[in-house]
């Protein structure tokens, strides 16, 4: 069965960086576009970023564009999200999801990893 396991979350200071990882199994990872989605406390789901199956195209929500970078390593079945210049409003639980991007309706979800940005 499909499994998505996120890691790399934690506490960061404003202006700091974190790198999230998502290890995928149970499907042909290299065949599908994948996304990151987040949910801040008391708020709904927000699509953050997506990447084509071959990594040739990426998209970002306006709230993170220029600060976050999505990437993937299809040889390791792993999706990444490099988060720089973190802000308090980036505090959320981050989910790896697929297939596809630009939506919050996915068939596959990980359990999420918590990111807290605070001084």
Describe the structure.
The structure is a single chain. The strands form two sheets. Strands 2, 4, 5, 6, 9, 10 and 11 form a seven-stranded mixed sheet that branches. A four-stranded antiparallel sheet has the order 1-3-8-7, with no helix packed on it. It has strands spanning 3-7, 10-12, 18-25, 34-39, 45-51, 58-60, 68-73, 78-83, 92-98, 108-109, 113-117. It has no helices and eleven strands. The protein is mainly beta and 119 residues long.
What are the segments in which pLDDT stays under 50 over at least 5 consecutive residues? none
The radius of gyration over CA amounts to 13 Å
Q: Which outline best applies?
A: globular
Largest sheet composition: 7 strands, mixed
Rounded average pLDDT? 97
**Spatial separation of the terminal alpha carbons:** 40 Å
Provide the succession of SSEs.
EEEEEEEEEEE
DSSP E strands, number: 11
The total count of helices amounts to: 0
Compact description:
The chain is mainly β and 119 residues long. Helices cover 0% and strands 49% of the residues.
């Amino acid at each position: 069965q499909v499994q998505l396991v996120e890691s790399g979350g934690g506490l960061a200071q404003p202006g700091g960086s974190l790198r999230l990882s998502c290890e995928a199994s149970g499907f042909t990872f290299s065949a599908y576009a994948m996304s990151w989605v987040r949910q801040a406390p008391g708020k709904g789901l927000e699509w953050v970023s997506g990447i084509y199956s071959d990594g040739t195209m990426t998209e970002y929500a306006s709230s993170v564009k220029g600060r976050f970078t999505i990437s993937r390593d299809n040889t390791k079945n792993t999706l990444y999200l490099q988060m720089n210049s973190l802000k308090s409003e980036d505090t959320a639980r981050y989910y790896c999801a697929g297939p596809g991007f630009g939506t919050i309706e996915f068939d596959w979800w990980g359990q999420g990893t918590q990111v807290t940005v605070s001084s």
